Amino acid sequence: MAAFSRGRTVVNSLRVFWVLVILWYEVWTWDASVRSCKWPDSALLADNLGVEASHSKPTHVLLVADPQIIDRHSYPSRGLVLSYITQFLVDLNLRKNWRTALYKKPDVVVFLGDMMDSGRFVMTDEEYSEYFSRFNKIFTLNVDIPVYFIPGNHDVGLGAKITQFSDVARARYIEHFGQPNQEISVANHTLVLFDAPSYADEDSQRHGQKKSFERWDPVPYGALDFMKKFPSRPHPDPVILLSHIPLFRSDGRSCGPLREKGTIRPGVGLGYQNTLEKQSSLRLLEFLTPTVVYSGDDHDYCEYTHVYQHGGVEKMVREVTVKSLSMVMNVRRPGFQLLSLMPTNIRASDKPTYADAPCLLPDQLGIYLVVYIPLLAISLVIVLASNMGQQAPRRYRQSFSNDDVEAEGRRDTYPPTSSGQGPSPGWFVIQDHRRQQNTSISNNWPGKLKDLLGLLYSGNSRFASYRRTWPGIVIADVRDIAIFPLLTFVLTTWWVTSH
Known about the structure:
The chain has 499 residues and is of the alpha/beta class. It has helices at 2-35, 41-47, 80-102, 125-138, 153-156, 169-177, 196-208, 223-229, 278-288, 364-386, 394-397, 402-408, 433-439, 445-457, 461-467, 470-497; strands spanning 59-64, 108-111, 147-149, 182-186, 189-194, 239-243, 268-269, 272-273, 292-295, 302-310, 313-321, 335-341, 354-360. The protein has a 6-stranded mixed beta sheet with strand order 4-5-6-9-11-10, with helices on one face. A 5-stranded mixed beta sheet has the order 3-2-1-12-13, covered by helices on one side. β7 and β8 (272-273) form a beta hairpin. α1 crosses α3 and α1 (2-35) packs parallel to α16. The chain is globular and about 85 Å long. It starts with a helix and ends with a helix.
């Protein structure tokens, strides 16, 4: 009885432990990250006089960069099963991250490009529509909240065309996400949604044809055309530039303490460009004269101050590169950016009109690799140690069905040995033709599945005898422990994906 009590204590303790672990790392950790991240309203309210007496409040803009939902093109070397598991886990993480971001109740949402990892690849219209539908199912949003997008290189392509890149990628993007270049007014600020990939492509074409910027005829309605026409329109409100590709920097300056590793350096490769070219960046700043710049593409966080000339006067502008929202973009802690904008009616003169704050999310990959896997190994060691030396614990003897007890009491009905003395070695089933049929190993797949389930949950004598062995005892303990945390994981997953 002591062995029985000790064994049940271990099983029940590990059950409770694992349920709490799953709840903490799949639900409560995300909620904790929300509570530690706040809209930067206080910084604006402190700098603007008389705001406390106003009933108005800053407008909240949620900036999301590089969710890059994956598909079959993302990891072509992985098999079908592994690709499906990867996609399921990444989609689940994006849903949790998105749900966490929406807890902040934004007034406006802007995606800074690379919505879909393979949007630029060749695929049928039906496949692209399904891909886009999956994006919408992950990033559900109240219809009352405006949402805007700018294109990234994974959405529309960039640089030299290869056979895998679709010629209609840009047209598909416009059809599903909207115009790539536009300006919108939010809380008396002008948000410029800029198509950086096409701007980089067109500037590269101009260089290739050795034409000066002044002699170049921009592509109608393209990014360069949009930029050149921008100053001709009145813009009395502060301008905020939103670009997928970061602006040029060459000094290797640190990106700040929130950067995980390295810095942003210029570089070009197949389908990507780390920063816009130097002159392209300076012209963009001169034509738009933004108050602040927000970019994506790099996946990691970075703050950088650019210096440029405008009308013979030196100006400085701060650029924030927003973290990717995804767990598979080479950053351990994904994130998003909170941007607060002061409307005119509560804005004091010569005071800041905006403030932003980064929000860091839990390290999902670290949870899998550093928490779950080691704890699983430790749990298995505990189960093995608790059952060491036990051959037939009472808790399993007492769990046998009446048929098993009856079988134990009817040894005389077993087939005799060749000498006619006693039961044959190896016989553990009663002499009942119907029971022998039910407990025999089936040769078809449904039968094999039934036998496997019987191994875990059987009350019949064939598998009951296996459970009396040391491996059977360990397997049964693992089963009894795992069912509750697995059920908890399934329920939390359902809750996350349905909210």
